[in-house]
Amino acid sequence: MRRRLPPLNALLAFDAAARHQSFTLAAREMGIAQPAITRHIGNLETWLGAPLFERRGNSVALTEAGVHLARVATSAFDRIELGVRDLPRGGRQDLIIGASFGITHLWLMPRLAAMRAATTATVNFMTSDAYSDFDRAGVDLSIRYGDGRFPGYLSDLLLPEICFVVASPGFMAAHPELDPRDLTGSLRGDWLLEHGDPSDTGWVTWRTWFEAQGVPPPQPERWTEIRTYPALLDMVRHGEGLAIGHVGLDDQLVESGEILRLGSPLQRPGRGYFLVYGPEAMKRPGFRELRAQLLDRAG
Question: What mean pLDDT is predicted for residues 84-100?
Answer without folding.
Answer: 68
